[in-house]
Amino acid sequence: MSRRDRPAKAPLSREVIVRTGLDLLEQGGLANLSMRKIATALDTGSASLYVYVKDLNHLRALMLDTALEDVQDSPDLPPVDRVKAILRSYLHVLLDRPGLASIAAVTMPRGTGSMRLNELLLDGLLNGGVRPERAAWGVDLLTLHVTAKAAELAAWREQGDDVVGDTESAYERADETTYPRLAQLHHLLFAGPGPRRFDWALHSLINGITQTPLPPQVAPEHDTDKEARHVQ
Fold it and tell me: What are φ and ψ of residue 2, in 5° steps?
């Protein structure tokens, strides 16, 4: 077909590129996501995309931030229940598209979607009586846990149910002399997957955030966490 006979293309924009990336992710996961494939889907050249996004990592951050706009708030619930409901919604958002949990595990979004998520969690913790310093660190701890759980569940989906069964079988066969605690409790390690266990984990973390004081300040020359903060 002649180019002049084709329908006019939609104007290229950052939003169009991000939405196309999310569509490709939903259709085929991370393996389906590349600048070339996005350019092909938009009937343009890859070079045109770099006017709007710096590189694939930048695009992934924008995609994650856009997806986070779908996280639901539950403002009518008590503060702790509200925080847990927000985190459950965050988990579902990460699992709704194949590959998004993996992106979240290695990407730091910095747009309105992630800021809104952090704002909602901070508001819930503060309204629940958590002191500001603990609430700020607690948001990081809670989102890290949920992100890791989403990445784990997504990997199980991709690898199939056998991966869990094979691991459980290996623990069942563990030598009782070498691993006496595993022999005694291996069935509990794999028991209760699903909402009940996830809810227990969130409640445990929130209780810890509420009750655990922050460590004392240290002099800068003795701050062993300085390098770790730069890495983060």
Answer: -65, 145
pTM of the predicted model as reported, rounded to 2 decimal places: 0.84
Q: Of 88, 18, 91, 103, which is closest to residue 53 (Cα–Cα)?
A: 18
- Cβ-based neighbours of 83, under 8 Å, separated by 6 or more: 121, 124, 125, 128, 142, 202, 206
Which residues lie below 8 Å from residue 21, measured CB to CB, with a gap of 6+? 33, 38, 59, 60, 62, 63
- What is the rounded CA–CA span in Å between residue 171 and residue 190? 10
Q: With CA atoms as reference, report the closest residue to 94 among 161, 152, 8.
A: 152
* pLDDT (tens digit per residue) in 13-71: 999 999 999 999 988 888 889 999 999 999 999 999 999 999 999 999 999 999 999 99
DSSP 8-state code for residue 214: P
Question: Do residues 185 and 139 touch, judged by C-beta distance below 8 A?
Answer: no
- Determine contact, residues 107/61, Cβ cutoff 8 Å: yes
Tokens of 11: 């104007």
Q: Helix axis angle, 112-127 relative to 56-67, nearest 10°?
A: 50
Residues 153, 94 contacting (CB under 8 angstroms): no
